[in-house]
Write a structure and sequence with these properties.
Structural class: alpha/beta
Radius of gyration: 16 Å
Bound molecules: adenosine-5'-diphosphate
Number of helices: 9
Shape: globular
Largest sheet: 5 strands, parallel
Strand content: 5-15%
Distance between the termini: 18 Å
Strand order of the largest sheet: 2-3-1-4-5
Order of helices and strands: EHEHHHEHEHHHEH
Length: 204
Amino acid sequence: MRFASASGHGVRLLLLAPPGAGKGTQGERLAAWSGARHIAAGDLLRAQAQAEGPLGREIAAHQARGDLVPDQIVLDVLTPAVTEAAAHGGYILDGFPRNLTQAIAAAELAARLDVTLDAAIYLHAPEPVLTRRLLDRASQSGRSDDKADVIRHRLQVFAETTGPLVPYYTERGILVAVDADQPPDTVTADIQARLSGLTRAADR
Ligand code: ADP
């Protein structure tokens, strides 16, 4: 069963997850399932970082350290993609928002586009599991931030800066927490079951 938002105009989901929780994998699968576009903030920023010039260098430097890229740069990169997707079946935002300022910007953007956020999916797993996954993939990923010390820092940035968005979306009634310490297919099935439950609840 495909997920149809209560409004019937595509779906808008956020994927809130620490590094290594599998949000890229799940984001792609949910996009195929729902018909919405998968917009991965980290991927779009890595693509921009390849560009010559000061902006690309600034993004690359933040990413290599495992620090968040400044909010205004992130918004400039993501807004056109989100706007376009909102008009074509919706969006699955992977890795955005990552702090409170970005969460407010995401809500303002949705309001401007006259859409609502259906759910914020929080993928959680114990920190040793996340660390092991990230170290396991480090040799193949080719990413400047897949190094032991930077991985530690990225997990810390999540805990301190992005983690507070869990209570933020809980208070707004749209948090869907899913155990990501399971095989990828099980995680996908759990997310789909929870989202289908939301649709049914909205239909009542
Ligand atoms: P991971 O979740 O494994 O760290 P991502 O590809 O989502 O992988 O993010 C990699 C890096 O890209 C982050 O450490 C950060 O530097 C940058 N980044 C991604 N999304 C954001 C965002 N919303 N705000 C600021 N920086 C971001």
